[in-house]
């Protein structure tokens, strides 16, 4: 009985005591260690063994967890091969693995953290605030992303992608980390509330049916004018030719 009791007490103690004293610490450090391991196999060829950067990729010191979450979450990283711009694709990493790499990169130097859900949640915004988001979007973003967020070409073979399928979290992270040619919008320039309103604007625009007919890419007068020229004037010409030929035959 005594031996049994000793074994029991011993094993219960072994189970309970370390977990109680250092669980938070060891969770974080094991997450960072796991992230470092993933980083070394998938990313270090371009970003260097310690994220210091190589000729193939920039240094990641100070880009922050938000940048990693954005780049890996949208499937841009790891880049398959060096090229002008990493295309977004389906990510092959689990969200846990992304969080591990993000935690590791965040230890290199301080940078923007992954936003919490309430920083980009759009519930409870009024129609007026959504309209203000549209104004902010047209002032700050539409030059590159088009007035409806359908994307557009930029110089040197790069492009601003369509935002039709971007999640609120990725929009927030892109705004704060400025991937590639996109500028960084800091909290002084654009508050969390501003970003929320932009997200809400994009969501409403993209879920709106176009009751007026074809949206024609949302490009405005250019595509509408082209449509008018080719279909409208072209149709009139065809009708005129048809009428003229019919008239000649009936005579
Ligand atoms: C083939 C080379 C290559 C590989 C592999 C690669 N990257 Fe990159 N990475 C780049 C280049 C080039 C850029 C800069 C151009 C761009 O953003 O498109 C970049 C940019 C980034 C950025 C944005 C930096 C900033 O300034 O905001 C992050 C974060 C990043 N990479 C993380 C990763 C992670 C994490 C992995 C591994 C899962 C990885 N990369 C794998 C080449 C690579
Ligand atoms: C100077 C041009 C420019 C401006 C201005 C700009 N962006 Fe971008 N944006 C880009 C480029 C280029 C990329 C692609 C980066 C890459 O692929 O690494 C991008 C990517 C994004 C993405 C990622 C899309 C995805 O899910 O794949 C989002 C979201 C985004 N921008 C939102 C915004 C918002 C919101 C604003 C305004 C506050 C803005 N951008 C202003 C050029 C711009």
TrEMBL record:
Task: Quote a single Gene Ontology cellular component term.
Answer: plasma membrane
Q: What class of enzyme is it?
A: translocase
Post-translational modification as stated in the protein's UniProt record: Binds 2 heme c groups covalently per subunit.
GO function terms (MF aspect):
heme binding; iron ion binding; quinol-cytochrome-c reductase activity
Task: From the UniProt annotation, give the residues forming the signal peptide.
Answer: 1-19
Q: Does the keyword Iron apply?
A: yes
According to UniProt, the reaction catalysed is: a quinol + 2 Fe(III)-[cytochrome c](out) = a quinone + 2 Fe(II)-[cytochrome c](out) + 2 H(+)(out)
Q: Which residues form the Cytochrome c domain?
A: 30-109, 128-206
Q: Which residues cross the membrane?
A: 226-244
* InterPro entries, alphabetized: bc1_cytC-su, Cyt_c-like_dom, Cyt_c-like_dom_sf, Cytochrome_c_Oxidase_Subunit
Lineage, top-rank taxon, reads Bacteria
Give the location in the cell: Cell membrane
Q: What name does UniProt use for this protein?
A: Cytochrome bc1 complex cytochrome c subunit
The species this protein was found in: Acidipropionibacterium jensenii
């Amino acid at each position: 009985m005594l031996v049994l009791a000793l074994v029991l007490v011993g094993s219960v103690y072994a189970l309970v005591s370390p977990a109680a004293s250092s669980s938070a610490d060891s969770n974080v450090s094991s997450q960072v260690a796991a992230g470092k391991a993933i980083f070394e196999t998938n990313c270090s060829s371009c970003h260097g063994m310690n994220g210091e950067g190589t000729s193939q990729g920039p240094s990641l010191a100070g880009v922050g967890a938000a940048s990693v979450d954005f780049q890996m979450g949208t499937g841009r990283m790891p880049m398959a091969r060096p090229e002008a711009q990493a295309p977004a694709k389906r990510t092959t990493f689990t969200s846990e693995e992304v969080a591990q790499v993000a935690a590791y990169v965040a230890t290199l130097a301080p940078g923007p953290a992954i936003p919490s859900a309430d920083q980009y949640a759009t519930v409870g915004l009024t129609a007026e605030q959504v309209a203000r988001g549209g104004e902010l979007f047209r002032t700050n973003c539409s030059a590159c992303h088009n007035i409806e967020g359908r994307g557009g070409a930029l110089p040197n073979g790069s492009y601003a992608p369509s935002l039709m399928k971007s999640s609120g979290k990725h929009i927030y992270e892109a705004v704060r980390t400025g991937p590639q040619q996109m500028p960084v919008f800091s909290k002084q320039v654009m508050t969390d509330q501003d970003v929320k309103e932009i997200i809400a604007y994009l969501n409403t625009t993209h879920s709106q049916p176009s009751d007026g007919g074809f949206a024609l890419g949302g490009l405005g007068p250019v595509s509408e004018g082209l449509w008018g020229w080719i279909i409208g004037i072209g149709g009139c010409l065809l009708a005129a030719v048809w009428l003229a030929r019919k008239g000649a035959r009936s005579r």
